[in-house]
Write a structure and sequence with these properties.
The complex is a heterotrimer of chains A (861), B (226) and C (376). Chain A contains 28 helices and 23 strands. Chain A has 861 residues and is an alpha+beta fold. Chain A folds into four domains: 7-59 and 275-419, no CATH class; 75-256, no CATH class; 427-542 and 726-861, no CATH class; 546-719, no CATH class. In chain A, helix 18 (490-501) packs across helix 27. Chain A is globular and about 95 Å long. Chain B has one domain (8-225): Rossmann fold, CATH 3.40.50. Chain B has helices at 48-56, 78-88, 104-114, 119-133, 148-160, 178-195; strands spanning 8-19, 22-33, 37-41, 63-68, 71-72, 89-92, 166-170, 198-202, 214-219, 222-225. With 226 residues, chain B is an alpha/beta fold. In chain B, helix 3 (104-114) packs across helix 4, helix 3 packs parallel to helix 5 (148-160) and helix 4 (119-133) runs antiparallel to helix 5. Chain B has a six-stranded mixed beta sheet. Helix content of chain B is 34%, strand content 27%. The longest helix of chain B has 18 residues, at 178-195. Chain C is mainly beta and 376 residues long. The longest helix of chain C is centred in the C-terminal third of the chain and has 5 residues, at 371-375. Chain C is globular and about 60 Å long. The chains are: A alpha+beta (861), B alpha/beta (226), C mainly beta (376). Chain A binds chain C through residues 81, 84-85, 87-88, 91-95, 98, 125, 127-128, 130-133, 135-136, 148-151, 153-156, 209-211, 214-215, 220-221, 231-232, 248, and chain C through 80, 82-83, 86-92, 94-98, 100, 105, 118-123, 126-127, 138, 140-141, 143, 158-162, 336-337.
């Protein structure tokens, strides 16, 4: 048969048969497409949301000043005005504009509804903005037409906001907003609402003249960075030109500053969150996987239902390859339609997830604000591509099954059940388990920013899940065999015998559930382990009486710090025995970024309690370097678990630190090196503290003192140990929200799959049920037997899934977490949760069985 | 259109087939000429169905030869066997085996589409056949909406639409009442005469044999009378 | 280009040299230049922060020493003071709030017929500073300071594309103070006066980096330093201005102040500076500023009368006639704000006999509208 006639034939079968079947079972196929859509949607949603949540990488000013081409930063991400004076020479060229930026997070308080809102306060030289090529296009007006330039420069407190922010906090021009920054409470006055018809301005952006913002943040003389905007915007993509400009900039750049193309920063930031986003992506792939599995199940059911028809086609001389193509094409169409819908679903899910992810990114990585969600053509391609690819994979087996259908002459003569032979052979499953074990020996893959990706761990997880899914059928048969002797009634005996028989459909149904159950069980453990570890860490680490930090700012990257004069005043309070002051800043190692802390080394190494991986003194600091206490993450990232030297770029040039002790820390995944307070101040040129732990003379006055400080310092968060723990666990919960949500989606899809699977099991057993009916088996009994069958599948899936899940938990805690984040967790097995999960699965299985039997029965009538 | 290569529509020589230890065909010979109608009778388990399956190329012989339309089946590959089924054989089942999603017209049209008959010719041919089987008024109905007799008439039209060499009819009246069965048999006869196609009719029913030129009986894997 | 025939006759009704006494402060509270002020240098080359408006202006014609390629250049720094009552002090010197600077730099490449120009508007601070005590400007791409021996200026100007002009400028003639009793009047408003000091002939030598080439250049330049608190009188829309350096060693400066209705203000003037630096001048009634042709900008759409004929009655030498011809048509200067556009370009000076008798710079300002309001 020629290719074209073959195609015509496939098309004929598709339109005259497949789609007519779809029409007859519209609900069924619609559900299937919805499942695919949810799968693709979960993947795409997470993709879009995490992009949108970390897309603007903290360059909020670009909403106003337009895209910049290069960044000039200090290694600590904190510039001083004296650095700016050094840059003046660089500013003379007409080929670029230097745009200094100061920015900080502040908390708006006393809003009309009593709520608080986190805002980004951005300071730009409003006058020099007029030199920027894009500003004229933006057409932002900072003043009324008749105002003079000096009217809006140098004000103490005047700011500009976009309409969306004005709406969300209910202010208009001339109103004031109270806010907390650097531990102080202050007010800013809205000079004007910026006319922003395109909605480019984020709804948390507050803009002010640079000195005004420095004043509001009480960070006089400080800047965050200087952006470089090319004058010839039309040559932005001209690589040789950019290289020439970069070369010219570098020639005059002061030695203590770092120049990088803006896109590098984007890449840096993307690399910083790469591990986090990868974890999410892999989790979200599960939904697609389960969706694909359901397509497999559904198409397989379709093959079963259409067996007679396929046999007739075979008798009429329709070739096996045509049948194969038709079924594969059916899978493709299902996948395609589902995936296209999935892109839309993704958009909806992204809406839900974006806030969650932005919070996480803010809390763990760097200041970011949510950018408008957008679907790129790449999203569509990736989403649809994945959906279709998985659907095709899923369609493969049923399509092959269809081709093995004999012509009607044979089919009519007796029972014929092809089934999936490989589901009956444990070899493949066992091999996969073994392969997973081998994969554990792979070293982690080191990514751009220095974070590590546990490739072996992920491969092992994949192998184990797949292997156990393949072995799940054997588990089912084994379990049914054990229970069988105890089944005496007709209903239970029937249900048990069917399970014990272990048809391909039964095995498939269990396998699908096992995937979901094992993933969820594994995740439970990781999250529980994490929580327990952090609680344990808290118990040991936080022994001070009061903890003081800048109010409202939770993010690692948006810290203003505590105003030094304010802190001086606070520390002069009576009843303070000792104050452990902590200063932190970013520092640049050769790759990526890490955190440099200035602490009281004596207190940290001798008095404060820590969970030590290596007690201070067990390692020898290298001579001529700065002795440091480093976190486990730091030690693992830079390979100094056994001591050594790490070079860090600081505002005072390259500095070397060498660990003499390693402590456990779960604050961030970039690692932290703590050096002595004095050196830190010398290296960074700053004295700003980030937090202070107070030890009191008289602990009985703790509450009184806390309340008193709170009144005196409304801009500072003053917490006792309990309150601090709550805040930290709050951030923790936030971090795992997305994980929870994805587990739930995966589980929901798996349950939907169980329903579909049971339906196809009953479809295949039509003759048995008919016979039973003739024998006087009542409908109620039939439904009950179906329920028991479903429950049996649930139990088997739970047993196999939980065992696999335990292995996954171990893998996540001891391999994946250690490799990707560099921290060792205590392994907690939430037994009660796992047991409850088992009960839930059994009940859901039972109910699913009954529902699908009732539905099946209803349809038969 | 088709080359009429051999003198016979069907020639079976020395056909042997066994399943495990059970020998089903034990060296059977059978020849049917073009336009000839042959009834095949025999008790259950005598090997009638196995013989039909072998003639369709669904099951291979252990030894011996089968020629359909001059082509030796044992020489052919799977796809070529499918082609033989598509082009040279029309099959009428006891339980009709109409495709449930196609209406009567489409069901009949289907094999013609399989062999790539041009559209105009096909429509004409199917319309003619519907006139012949007397179901023009029912051609838009789905199989579910037809009576047993009607369904079998549709199945006969389907078996003939692509002008096969050989029609294999496996108990075509087995599921029908006497009257419908009679009509179906008449139809088979008249159409096979009209087209000049060979017919191998498997039946338990002596009444059915009246439309045939010759009756052969099978027992224990042999033809015992011809 | 369309040639406009027939000269526009400047209205010349008033007798010149009527004395209007300026107030000590302008209506906004700025200091107003006082009469009979004798400047001391180098202090008076520095910034006069108490006055509303001040500019330092260099233009000139250069040629490369090696191959005689010809260039015109303009480097101007404007200082604009914020309202003395309403502008605020900044906490930081890096971002001042009381003074605004503009840097305008342009290079006219006569052989390539190309005009490069660039504007920066900056607040006083890290990118814009002007010394109070001497010539000491650092405003975006323009730097100017006194030479070590105090006898001239060092001027550096940066151009787009990485180019740079570095010049040593040595006065060939003493400084000229324009106007009656040291005050140059720009309109009938009492405060519309300025101190207007010029070096009408500066010998220029230096280095030009342009188009990837570094070449020695030489030529002559003109420098203005003007200080006022109300540059234009009420009802004035702009001005046309030129400085000519004639081959005979003399210079001519001429300007007409254009009124909103298109006529010329009576304070429009022509100055002659003789070879020794002595000046003579006439006001509007003694000269005409004729337009012989115009040029329309494809960028801003503004039309400038760039072909000029000036006929004037010299107090002693009688009728004089000068025609100005731009070396390139497109010498329009515009920044990010198109309404600030003006035409400022290098020209040849042509005698009535059609001979080139010198070089000039011509400035045509206020053709985009709104200039008067900004400089009042």
């Amino acid at each position: 048969m020629s290719l074209s006639s073959r195609f015509q034939l496939v098309w004929l079968l598709l339109t005259k048969m497949t789609f007519r079947h779809w029409r007859n079972k519209a609900g069924h196929y619609l559900l299937l497409m919805v499942i695919v859509a949810v799968g693709v949607g979960a993947f795409n949603g997470i993709r879009q949301a995490s992009r949108s949540a970390s897309a603007n990488f903290g360059l909020f000013n670009q909403a106003v000043s337009g895209q910049s081409d290069f960044l000039i930063e200090s290694p600590t991400q904190r510039l001083l005005e004296k650095d700016l004076k050094q840059l003046a020479r660089l500013g003379k060229s007409p080929d670029w504009n230097l745009v200094p930026v100061v920015e900080g997070s502040v908390t708006a308080v006393e809003l009309i509804n009593g709520a608080k809102k986190q805002l980004r306060l951005i300071g730009l030289d409003l006058l020099a903005l007029g030199n920027l090529p894009t500003l004229t296009q933006q057409n932002l007006k900072f003043s009324e037409e008749n105002a003079s330039w000096y009217d809006w420069l140098g004000s103490d407190n005047e700011v500009w906001v976009g309409q969306s922010l004005a709406d969300s906090v209910g202010v208009t021009g001339g109103d004031t907003i109270s806010f907390l920054a650097s531990g102080r409470k202050a007010k800013m006055k809205i000079r004007m609402i910026l006319d922003d018809p395109d909605g480019n301005l984020p709804d948390d952006l507050v803009l002010g003249d640079l000195p005004t913002v420095q004043h509001l943040l009480s960070r006089s003389g400080e800047l965050n960075r200087v952006e470089v905007v090319l004058t010839q915007v039309d040559r932005r993509e001209d690589k040789p030109y950019l290289a020439e400009i970069e070369d010219r900039l570098r020639k005059e750049l002061p030695r203590n500053l770092i120049l990088s193309p803006t896109e590098n920063r984007a890449a840096d930031r993307a690399a910083m969150t790469a591990a986090f986003r990868l974890n999410l992506t892999i989790l979200s792939l599960i939904a697609i996987l389960v969706g694909a599995y359901l397509i497999l199940q559904a198409l397989d059911a379709a093959v079963v239902r259409r067996r007679a028809e396929i046999a007739t086609l075979r008798s009429l001389g329709v070739g096996a390859s045509v049948l194969f193509s038709t079924f594969l094409l059916e899978a493709l169409v299902l996948g395609l339609l589902g995936s296209i819908a999935g892109v839309g679903v993704g958009q909806v899910l992204a809406f839900g997830a974006v806030g969650m992810l932005a919070d996480t990114v803010n809390a763990l990585y760097f200041a970011t604000s949510v950018e408008a969600l957008s679907v790129t053509s790449l999203d569509v391609i990736v989403g649809v591509g994945l959906g279709v690819a998985f659907s095709l994979l899923a369609g493969w087996l049923p399509a092959r099954d269809a081709t093995q259908t004999p012509p009607a002459q044979i089919l009519a003569k007796g029972d014929w059940s092809p089934g999936f032979f490989w589901l009956r052979k444990p070899k493949v499953g066992l091999c996969l388990l073994g392969l997973g074990g081998v994969a554990l020996c792979f070293p982690p893959f080191i990514m751009e920013a220095g974070s590590k990706m546990p490739v072996g761990g992920f491969v092992a997880a994949g192998c184990w899940i797949l292997g156990s899914a393949l072995l799940a059928g054997h588990g089912l048969v084994l379990l049914a065999g054990w229970v069988r002797p105890f089944c005496s009634g007709p209903v239970s005996r029937l249900a048990c015998s069917r399970l014990w028989d272990g048809s391909s459909r039964h095995r498939l149904a269990v396998a699908g559930l096992v995937v979901a159950v094992s993933m969820v069980t594994g995740m439970f453990q990781m999250i529980e382990s994490f929580r327990d570890t952090i609680e344990e860490w808290f118990d040991v680490r936080f022994q001070a009486d009061l903890y003081i930090s800048e109010s409202g700012v939770t993010g690692a990257g948006s810290i203003n710090g505590i105003d030094p004069t304010l802190l001086d005043g606070l520390l002069r309070q009576p009843n303070i025995k000792y104050a452990d002051i902590m200063r932190i800043c970013y520092a640049k190692p050769a790759r990526g970024v890490t955190v440099l802390a200035g602490v009281d080394m004596k207190h940290w190494s001798q008095e404060a309690r820590q969970i030590w991986l290596k007690e201070p003194g067990t390692l020898q600091s290298v001579k001529g370097t700065e002795p440091a206490l480093v976190s486990e993450t730091f030690a693992r990232r830079f390979g100094v678990l056994e001591g050594g030297v790490v070079e860090l770029q600081t505002p005072s040039g390259m500095q070397k630190v060498s660990p003499f002790g390693i402590f456990c820390d779960y604050g961030n995944e970039f690692g932290m090196a703590a050096i002595s307070q004095l050196e830190w101040i010398k290296w960074t040129g700053s004295e700003r503290a980030v937090n202070v732990s107070l030890y009191l003379e008289d602990r009985s006055k703790l509450k009184e003192m806390r309340d008193q400080l709170r009144i005196a310092y409304p801009g500072l968060d003053i917490r006792n140990e309990r309150e601090l723990r709550d805040v930290a666990l709050g951030i923790f919960e936030q971090t795992f929200q997305a994980t929870h949500a994805l587990s739930l989606i995966g589980l929901a899809v798996a349950f939907a799959g169980l329903l579909l699977g049971l339906l196809s099991i009953f479809d295949e057993s039509t003759q048995t049920w008919q016979t039973l009916k003739h024998l006087g088996f009542s409908t109620q009994r039939f439904i009950l037997a179906a329920g028991l069958e479903g429950a049996g599948i649930g139990v088997a899936a739970w047993v196999v899934g939980a065992i696999t899940g335990l292995a996954l938990g171990w893998l996540l805690v001891f391999v994946i977490n250690v490799q990707s984040f560099g921290w060792t967790l205590l392994w907690t097995v939430p037994l009660a949760n796992i047991l409850w999960f088992g009960v839930l699965l059994t009940v859901v299985g039972f109910v699913s069985g009954m529902i699908s039997a009732s539905y099946w029965n209803f349809r038969r009538r | 259109m088709k080359d009429f290569a051999g003198p016979f529509a069907l020639a079976v020589t020395g056909a042997k087939k066994s399943f495990g230890k059970v020998d089903v065909l034990k060296g059977l010979d059978l020849t049917i000429q073009s336009g000839e109608r042959v009834a095949l009778m025999g008790p259950s388990g005598s090997g009638k169905s196995t013989l039909l399956n072998c003639i369709c190329g669904i099951e291979p012989l252990d030894s011996g030869n089968i020629q359909v339309g001059g082509k030796e089946l044992s020489d052919l590959k799977r796809t070529e066997l499918e082609k033989i089924r598509r082009e040279n054989i029309g099959y009428v089942f006891q339980s009709f085996h109409l495709l449930p999603t196609l209406n009567a017209f489409e069901n009949v049209e289907f094999p013609a589409q399989l062999v790539g008959m041009p559209r105009d010719q096909r429509i004409q041919r199917v319309t003619d056949l519907f006139n012949d089987v007397g179901l023009s008024h029912r051609k838009d109905h789905l199989p579910d909406e037809l009576s047993g007799g009607e369904r079998q008439r549709v199945a006969i039209a389907r078996a003939l639409v692509h002008r096969p060499r050989l029609i294999l009819a496996d108990e075509p009246t087995g599921s029908l009442d006497t009257e419908s069965g009679g009509q179906v048999l008449e139809l088979l006869k008249s159409l096979s005469i009209e087209i000049g196609v060979a017919l191998l009719l498997v039946t338990h029913d002596h009444e059915s044999t009246r439309i045939c030129d010759r009756v052969i009986r099978m027992k224990d894997g042999f033809l015992i009378s011809d | 280009m369309k040639i406009i025939f027939g000269f526009l006759l400047i209205s010349c009704l008033n007798i010149h040299a009527e004395w209007i006494e300026p107030p000590t402060r302008s209506s906004k509270g700025f200091l107003v230049p006082t009469a009979d002020y004798i400047p001391t240098f180098p202090q008076d080359h520095g910034a006069h922060r108490g006055y509303a408006l001040e500019w330092w202006y260099w233009v000139g014609h250069l040629e490369t020493v090696n191959d005689g390629q010809k260039y015109g250049f303009q480097s101007t720094v404007f200082r604009v003071a914020g309202d003395p009552k309403n502008s605020k002090d900044s906490e930081t010197e890096t971002f001042g709030s009381r003074q605004l600077f503009l840097a305008h730099s342009a290079l006219s490449d006569r052989s390539e017929k190309k005009y490069l120009h660039h504007e920066r508007v900056l607040r006083e601070g890290w990118q814009a500073q002007a010394s109070k005590d001497t010539l000491g400007l650092e405003v975006a791409g323009i730097e100017a300071r006194m030479l070590v021996d105090g006898k001239g200026h060092h001027l550096t100007t940066h151009y787009p594309g990485g180019g740079k002009l570095e010049l040593e400028l040595i006065p060939a003639k003493p400084l000229v103070r324009f106007g009656e009793r040291g005050l140059s009047r720009k309109g009938d408003g009492a405060a519309s006066v300025s101190w207007y000091w010029s070096y009408s002939r500066l010998k220029a030598t230096g280095v030009l980096s342009h188009n990837g080439q570094v070449q020695k250049v030489r030529g002559f330049a003109w420098m203005d330093h003007e200080i006022s608190s109300s540059q234009l009188g009420k009802g004035l829309a702009g001005w046309d201005w030129t400085c000519m350096q004639l081959d005979d060693g003399t210079e001519v400066k001429a300007y007409r102040l254009r009124k909103d209705d298109g006529s010329s203000d009576r304070w429009s003037a022509v100055y002659w500076i003789d070879a020794k630096g002595k000046t003579q001048h006439v006001y509007a009634d003694q000269f005409t500023w004729g337009e012989e042709g115009d040029w329309t900008s494809p960028t801003t759409g503004l039309t400038y009368p760039t072909y000029i004929r000036i006929n004037a009655d010299h107090p002693t030498r009688g009728k004089q006639s000068y025609r100005l011809r731009p070396i390139i048509d497109d010498q329009e200067f515009y920044g990010n704000r198109a309404d600030n556009a003006y035409w400022e370009g290098a020209c040849d000076v042509i005698s009535p006999d059609d001979e080139v008798i010198g070089r000039a710079y011509l400035e045509l300002a206020g053709y985009g509208g709104g200039l008067g309001a900004r400089l009042n």
